[in-house]
Write a structure and sequence with these properties.
5 helices
Length: 122
Amino acid sequence: MTAVSPRRGPAPRGRFLPVAAALAAMALCWLGAPAAVQAQTARQGRAIVARDCTGCHALTGDRMGAGGRAPSFPAIARMSSTTELSVTVFLRTSHAPMPNIMLSPEEISAVAKYIVSLKRGG
């Protein structure tokens, strides 16, 4: 005798549609955000790094920060690996000798946008 598995119907279509629509709307909102909004976020990121990071990193130029071990933010921006995602991941993980500065997700996003804006000359 052969076992017959119960027939499964198609996945409920309405279940995932609201989630997909919300994700798409959020993506469109950010991608379509005016340059002024993105610039404001980058300015907020600059204020955060000025407050929390200048003990080790320089805000301008190519010189190393305090102690000669931390690259300047423009130098970080020029690294081929620097993207918003890579900066975000970096800031969410501990790296010695970098202190474990606790930033909110919004602050991390603003700092990442600031650093990437330097790549574009912002």
